[in-house]
């Protein structure tokens, strides 16, 4: 009996918890008139909701924004961007809790790096906020500057506040995609910029694919070809041309991926992935040195060939290690569907298995050759005098 009661209590809690994740179940009302907002939206990122009523007669927009900060000392914000679709230029309203008191600020966001209070470019009144059960609600009425019945909205959550200044929010996909076009007419009124694949997201995907193919597949494959095929005399010189072709293709694709990365960095002011960027620069420099090694390659019997081999091999293996590290760093940044990371891990695992098998075969061949060679004397007779 007790277990049944606990089960139904848990089920009731689950149903209430699930229903609270939909704006239609929240039934928020305008603070002054106590009437329901005309429209509500389940925002597609950061578990956020927007209730709003548009009054065309005075171009006002009354809103209630609901979100949970990532920590008890965190902040939430919502705003309109009259000049663009991103964060810079957004006229935002932010709220946070400190010492048990709710604080609300307005922010004129002119930079990704500095989030300080500032006067908005449009009028705002009836501004208030409340907090309960880890959820913050912001209420406001704004004088909107609409174009074609649409406005650009941006929302965000952040981890903490220091001396009244909002600390920088995270740069996960949810944070980066929390923006959209709000249609004031209601109904099917919201088309999120993040729901489709915009040009920036497409370029990020292209950057990831190019680098995964070059540094993460073709370069290791070229090393496998050079290390194991040359063991067999019948593969000479085919192995060399395959190796060179594979590495040149990897370099060309890698440079294209590196260039798209530079372009993404220049278009993302204030967003910096320092380690990922620095490893990418190092990969480009080392791979360029490897290309020069092709033109500086001495003959097999040259006295400097030993040192060239050390230089060529050490840089080659360094490129593979750094390439794999940076690809997984890229996966953490892009945060794609799990299947893509799983697929790449499968490809790398397959190359690893092939390398291990070829390593065993190569050692068997080399040891057999040494054994056969040791049975012969200097003058050509074997141990049996034949």
From TrEMBL:
Residues of the signal peptide: 1-20
Main location (coarse class): membrane
Keyword Electron transport among record annotations: yes
UniProt-recorded Gene Ontology molecular function terms: metal ion binding
Keyword Cytoplasm in record: no
InterPro entries (UniProt xref): AIR12_DOMON, Cyt_b561/ferric_Rdtase_TM, DOMON_domain, UCP037471
Annotated transmembrane regions: 208-226, 238-259, 279-296, 308-331, 343-366
A GO cellular-component term linked to this record: membrane
Cofactor note: Binds 2 heme b groups non-covalently.
Function statement: May act as a catecholamine-responsive trans-membrane electron transporter.
Protein name: Cytochrome b561 and DOMON domain-containing protein
């Amino acid at each position: 009996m007790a277990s049944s009661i606990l089960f139904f209590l848990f089920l009731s809690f689950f149903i209430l918890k699930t229903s609270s994740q939909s704006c239609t179940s929240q039934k928020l009302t305008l603070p002054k008139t106590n009437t329901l907002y005309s429209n509500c939206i389940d925002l597609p990122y950061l578990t956020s909701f927007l209730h709003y009523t548009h009054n065309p007669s005075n171009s006002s927009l009354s809103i209630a924004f609901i979100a949970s900060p990532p920590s008890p000392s965190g902040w939430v914000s919502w705003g309109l961007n009259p000049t663009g679709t991103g964060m810079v230029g957004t006229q935002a309203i932010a709220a946070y809790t400190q010492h048990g008191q709710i604080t609300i600020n307005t922010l004129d966001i002119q930079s990704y790096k500095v989030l300080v209070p500032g006067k908005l470019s449009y009028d705002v009144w009836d501004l208030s906020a409340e907090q309960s059960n880890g959820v913050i609600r912001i209420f406001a009425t704004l004088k909107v500057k609409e174009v074609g019945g649409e406005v650009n909205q941006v929302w965000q959550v952040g981890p903490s506040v220091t001396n009244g200044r909002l600390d920088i929010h995270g740069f996960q996909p949810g944070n980066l995609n929390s923006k959209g076009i709000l249609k004031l007419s209601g109904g099917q009124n919201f088309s999120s910029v993040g729901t489709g694949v915009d040009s920036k997201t497409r370029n990020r995907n292209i950057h990831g694919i190019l680098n995964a193919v070059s540094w993460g597949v073709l370069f290791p494959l070229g090393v496998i070809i050079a290390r194991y095929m040359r063991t067999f005399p019948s593969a000479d010189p085919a192995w060399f041309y395959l190796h060179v072709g594979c590495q040149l293709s990897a370099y060309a694709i890698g440079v294209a991926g590196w260039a798209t990365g530079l372009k993404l960095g220049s278009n993302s002011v204030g967003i910096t992935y320092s380690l990922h960027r620095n490893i990418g620069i190092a990969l480009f420099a080392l791979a360029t040195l490897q290309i020069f090694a092709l033109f500086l390659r001495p003959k097999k019997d040259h006295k400097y060939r030993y040192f060239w081999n050390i230089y060529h091999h050490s840089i080659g293996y360094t490129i593979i290690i750094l390439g794999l590290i940076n690809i997984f760093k890229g996966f953490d940044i892009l945060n794609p569907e799990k299947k893509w990371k799983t697929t790449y891990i499968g490809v790398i695992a397959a190359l690893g298995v092939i390398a291990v098998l070829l390593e065993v075969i190569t050692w068997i061949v080399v040891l057999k050759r040494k054994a056969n060679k040791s049975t012969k004397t200097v003058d050509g007779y074997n141990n049996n005098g034949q």
